[in-house]
Design a protein that fits this description.
InterPro entries: DmsD-type, DMSO/NO3_reduct_chaperone, TorD-like_sf, TorD/DmsD_chaperones. This protein is an all-alpha fold. It contains eleven helices and no strands. The longest helix has 20 residues, at 176-195.
Amino acid sequence: MLDAVAFAGDALAPFFLQDPLTGDAGASFEAMAALDPAAAAAEWPFAEEGEAREALGLMVAGLAGGAGDEGLAWEYRRLFVGPAPKPAPPWGSVYTDRECVVFGASTLELRAWMRGRGVARLGGGKEPEDHIGLMLALMAWLARNRPADLDEYLRGHLLTWAPHFLGELAGAARHPFYEGLARLTASTLEGIRAERGLKVAVPRFYR
């Protein structure tokens, strides 16, 4: 199970973190474009197979023009970069903080949790630690390196807000790739939650 959790986090994180044109996740986009959705869904961990098949189908269809397709890149920037207001911001505190701010209380709580366990932040840059891509990557790292901390991380930090965000993202996406990504990630995380028997206290959302 831990290997499957690590695979899911590693497979999904780059699509949230990397611009298709200028990022360094070209190999991930190429691998996704080459998938047979039905065959891949049968092997994809945790997600319900029918949902995984539909979501993967959307992602593969969205890559028909390749990762270099400008429409794909523009959608990534619209959703995750700006400068216009983002319809589904990828940071947890935007949803859980009363002021809907980046680097809010939940970000600081995650940072303190990581520091208390000697867990270094993953990746460079100045992104807050509660960016969905960084948190999926951290899920994979914990599954491989700190499995004893995985459930606490999922229950107290990632699963508190990610399902809400992913629902917002699926509704806001205007490109099949990112709608499929949101749906696949949501189904995968729900499967992980159920498989590990986690009870998550859902906070109040302000957005």
